[in-house]
Amino acid sequence: MKIEDTINNLRQLNFDLKYEVKNNNELYVRIKSEQIRKIALICIDVFKFNYICEFTAEGERPTIEGKEFIVNCVFSNSKRGYYVIWSYVTEKAPISLENIIYQSNLFQREINSDYDYKVKEVSGTDAYQVAVGPVHAGIIEPGHFRFSVMGEPIENLEIRLMYKHRGIEKQCTNINANLLNLMFERVSGESTVAYGEAYAILVEKLLNKEVSKEIKALRIVLLELERMYNYMDDLGGIANDIGYSYVAKKFGYFSEIIHQLCERVSGSRFMRNGIVPLGINIDFNEKKKKDIIETLDSIKARVNSIIKMSFNAVSFLDRVEDTGMVSTAMAKKFCMTGVVARASNLKYDVRLKFPYELYKEIKKDINIETKGGVFERYKLKACELKDAFDFIEKALSYINKDIKRDKQEICLKEGLEAIVSVETVKGELVVYGLVGKDNRFNRIYFKTPSFTNWTGMTEAVLGEIVPDFPLINKSFNMSYSENDR
Amino acid sequence: MNNIFDRIKYGTETIKDPLHNNEFSYGKIIAKENICNNCGECMSICTVGAITINIGTNGENIVKINNKKCIYCRNCVDICSESVLKMTSDYKMAELELAGDKLREKIYKIYNRSLVLRVVDTGSCNACMSELSALHNTFYDISRFGINVVPSPRHADALVVTGVVTKNMKEALEKTYQAMAEPKIIIAVGSCAYNGGIFKDGDGVYDVLNNILPVDLVIPGCPPSPQAIIFGLLKLMNKL
Q1: Are B135 and B229 in contact (CB under 8 A)?
Q2: pLDDT at residue B100 greater than cutoff 70
């Protein structure tokens, strides 16, 4: 169903709509607040759209009672690759989409700044609670977990986050658009390149410009390098939580090799300030190309053999198989994205559905697993890691000449708005930007992959024992930082 | 069995000297003397306000870069038309604060040889945490220097803090600090921890660590590389 069909269909249903199509694949529709429930129902049940997010256009709900504010509700059609943004004006709280979209309450809670947590009580013989955090017993970010346990199995898990809330979205509106990529990169450290890429394609979409094919290919190299060291850390982490230290340490070593390669290529171990709008901030030459190819060749066979080693270990399989299951229906209900959702048989990858850079030519199909347990996530991460080797090789074949560092001054027109998505390591990142005065943004909204995926974990741990929790947590490996923002 | 074959085939991975010169690393930004024309471009492009230009006694412009504030984005180096600023590969930027120096003497009289850390993240972007966990990989293997991370503040000599202190984490940070046994060392890892870095003006930010707890060791960087962290910790332990 194309964009036009969506409008026509809604017209036939007697909705009186004011709409506008922007940037080719964004449909902005203004509706009345009482229509949103009906429309949400139609979007989900009839049009089969994906629910993405809800946010206020102003950044936060006005503190004065009775003052009007706008709520945007975003859906996407992944088959045709476009977004639909429904916006309505309301005076009180945003209209509840209860019973239509389960995850809507997460976003509405954020709009209402309602962070009162009520821990569900579990009562009965052998019922007790285990409280963990906010400061954990290792090198991990802060978050509070409350397990309600009946004897051995976990009956309920409440996750309390937002300890790291810094107000990044609001800070983004105070920084000049030429420097904003620095802020984007620091939303989540391990997805630095993906966030930089999101900002670059956001600005390019606003200005309706494209970069050269060589730069696009180089961006893919950086993005896939980032995917590599993250998945290596994840695989190592899962092995570490099981106690298979040989595999854990080897993946740690590979990740270090990739980090050092990144340092040699871009001057930063996390490739910070590498991708900039309308260009790239890295000098790339034949020597660096050769370095990448040689380094990856030197570890490729070994990575495969270590992955195989873990698949052959019975003690390893015993722990991971049938642990932390999330069914397809649940994954869909929780709007999960990324590797975690693909492990539960949801066939969705931004790199194919909303292709950016050269992914249309490079990536051909989506890797999925069906069962949705820790082992499936492990297998899928290993599979994505192997893919990353191929993608880098393919992308490098597009680069046949030296690339000069190219950073252009950008100047944005007031009132422009756009929405883009990028497949980060954790899943689908959606960024909305509305340009304001003085080359600054009036509103930046991040729908980060971890924000909805965290709910998936509360489902995955049910019925498991508490000692399996670290393993399940590591197999999800969500970022607290990007969730809290 | 496979483990043993793999081990024999590839040998040792740990490097002997983790503090070797790394020409690819980012590091201290230095300014050449006597050529700055005070155009102010670098000051306006710096998002964290790490650059100051003073006028010296002979009327020349002296550029100063605060290493503890800098986030090492290189924008100032790129924009300078006179190429006054230059990024070196000198990652050895960790500095002991005055109080830390005295404390160090006291601690190492009692227990020399080891340092036990407790890590608290109060609002970083997770890059500093990744680098801290990278210290434990087989390449750097920090435990051979007697440095370990423990799960309880009661067992720790030093508290490692990453990231700016948010309103929501302030209480947790203070409780962790109080739970530690005297004498205690505070280590700020990353520019955000000490000076707030890019998040300084955020809505949810309470204050920077420097104003809350007495910081003894600062390891600047965004994020500081494992080499820089090892350098800082060894400096604290008097092992250089």
Answers
A1: yes
A2: no
pLDDT over 80 (residue B218): yes
A405 and A433 assigned to the same domain:
yes
Q: With an 8 Å Cβ cutoff, is B212 touching chain A?
A: no
Residue B109 has pLDDT above 70, yes or no: no
A207 and A320 assigned to the same domain? yes
Query: What pLDDT score does B106 carry?
Result: 67
Residues of B within 8 A of A253 (CB-CB) are 13, 137-139
| Cα→Cα distances A1→A26, A207, A225, A284, Å | 14, 27, 36, 42
CATH number of the CATH domain containing B83:
3.30.70.20
- Phi/psi of residue A478, nearest 5 degrees: -85, 160
Domain containing A214 equals: 168-484
**pLDDT band at residue B111 using 50, 70 and 90 as cut-offs:** low
B164 → closest Cβ in A166, A183, A269 = A166
Q: Quick one: pLDDT at residue B99? A: 64
Instruction: List C-alpha distances in Å: A52 to A99, A106, A212, A433, B119.
Output: 16, 12, 31, 15, 35
B159 close to A (CB below 8 A): no
Nearest partner of B46 among B26, B30, B66, B31, judged by Cα: B66
**Closest Cβ–Cβ partner in A135, A281, A407 for B120:** A135
Domain assignment present for residue A150? The answer is yes
Contact B137 A134 (CB under 8 A): no
Is there a single domain that holds both residue B165 and residue B188? yes
What region does A125 belong to: left with phi over 0, alpha with psi -120 to 50, or beta? beta
Do B78 and B108 have their domain in common?
Answer: no
The pTM is what?
0.92
d(CA A432, CA A202): 8
Contact B74 A273 (CB under 8 A): yes
Residue B89, pLDDT score: 81
Mean pLDDT by 10 residues, chain A (485 residues): 76 75 84 82 84 82 75 87 86 80 85 75 81 84 88 86 87 87 88 91 89 88 91 91 88 91 88 88 87 90 89 88 88 89 89 86 87 89 90 89 84 87 90 88 89 89 88 89 87
How far is residue A331's CA from residue A326's CA, in Å, rounded to a whole number? 6
B3 and A267 within 8 Å at the Cβ level: the answer is no
A-chain residue closest to B156, CA distance: A137
Dihedral (Cα; B222, B119, B228, A218), 10-degree rounding: -40
Flag whether residue B178 sits within 8 Å of chain A, measured between CB atoms. Answer: no
Question: So what's the pLDDT on residue A21?
Answer: 81
Provide the pLDDT for residue A195: 92
8 Å CB contact of A269 and B223: yes
With 80 as the cut, is the pLDDT of residue B113 above it? no
DSSP assignment of B179-209 equals HSPSS-EEEEESHHHHH-GGGTT-TTEEE-H
More confident residue, B169 or A114: B169
Q: What one-letter code names the amino acid at B143? A: S
Amino acid at A475: S
Closest residue to B125, CB basis, from A187, A253, A256: A187
- B152 at A interface, C-beta within 8 A: yes
- For residues B155 and B153, give the distance between their C-alpha atoms in angstroms, rounded to a whole number: 5
Q: Are residues B81 and B189 in the same domain?
A: no
For residues B102 and B39, membership in a common domain is answered with no
Is there a domain that residue A360 lies in?
A: yes
What is the rounded (10 degree) CA torsion for A281, B77, A176, A266?
Answer: 30
The secondary element (H helix, E strand) that includes residue B21 is none
